[in-house]
Amino acid sequence: MIADKKIQESENSSVELSITLTAQSVEDAYKALVTKYSKDMVIKGFRKGKAPIKLIESKYGEELRNESTYKLLEDDLKVALDDVEEKYKPLPYSTPVLQNEDDLSPFKPNTDITYSVVYDVLPQFDVPEYKGLSIEVPTVSIKKENVDTEIEKLRNQNALIVSKEEPAKDGDIVTIDFAELNSEGKNDRNDFTVTIGTTPSFFNLDADLIGMSTDEEKTVSKELAADFADADYAGKTVEIKISMKAVKFNDIPELDDDFAQDVSEDYETVKDLAKGTKKTLQERAESKLKGLKFTAVTDALVEKCPLVAPKSMIDYQADQQLQNFAQNNNMDLETLTKIFGMQGQSIDQLKEAWVPMIQKQLNVDLILEKIKEAEKFEVTDEEIKEAMGDTTSYSPEQTDYVKDYITEQVKLAKVNDFLIENNIFTKGKKLSYDELMNGPAVEEIPAK
Prior knowledge:
By secondary structure, the protein is an alpha+beta fold. It is 46% helix and 19% strand. Helix 8 (311-328) crosses helix 10 and helix 11 packs across helix 12.
């Protein structure tokens, strides 16, 4: 039985929970365990389960007392944690750590036991003022050259690859075989496709391909530099036979009304295409600017409320990011560890480098969660249904869980628009379209 319980807050959202157990509850747990073991225990000179309790205690008392008391500590800790205020409940990834364990044992009979555990809790803080802030953000203008560049991209995307009879020139797409004539030929290639001037090849053959026609063959001599990337070839002269198998080019469509109509049924003329393209660029810019506004607001809030997330929370996020990093690079953690080791680095160093970014993002997430709770956003059934998508593969229990999770995520998403709608954004530095779009990545919010 718990006789007393108290919580003391520590730095970095850590708390120490102290619990005092009554001597009676400790003795009851001990006696219950001794009785349980005595029924099955075999001691020389006695039949199974018939050895005197006092004899069992004299031989195994200390071990049994340790086992019963630690089990009691564990069980009563669960009861105590269930009963603490919500703000003092441990984070899911923070395991309570028993303090000063060496001072607890050996446990003394008929004595109250006071022990403490330390664990991390959700940071407690007052959210700073998040409405009516005046924040400077860049402005942008869409110029004719931006529209022209985008239309040129559309022309290239709609180009057809067409065979040609004429000799190859810079920019053509060619398919070749090449083979070394005076070495082992470990870098021979068949059906190697090259876009002349852009596709790297082992022997840098681009200049040698210009002027060759389909089915033509020739032998070239390549003097390789002393610092050539492959040491086996450095400083050597290699004879290479090249066979031209195909010459093709990008047949880029003319910029005319037919092309405009091919791009979209909404366009009739080149003028329509230009107007529509400018609108597309404006929408992209507005989306990026909206993301910049959101980032600017959250940066201001983090500056006003410099939280320090608990270590367990940071460690959990770092582990999650490491898993994603490995998956995105098609590796398991073991392979990733080996690769970093070959480079004289470690996984721990990688995670440590992520800590500032993780800390900032956690601060943003914690502040946004507070705003969500304060504003009590309403969520419609239609919004939840749209966000959940197809739920036919879920069991009823899974559907309920997903619905609750999605509901909170939809509410959280409403914070983004809320912050943009309830703050003042003044015109800052004027950026070109390219500067805006090629600047630092931000959390882009689709324009409405």
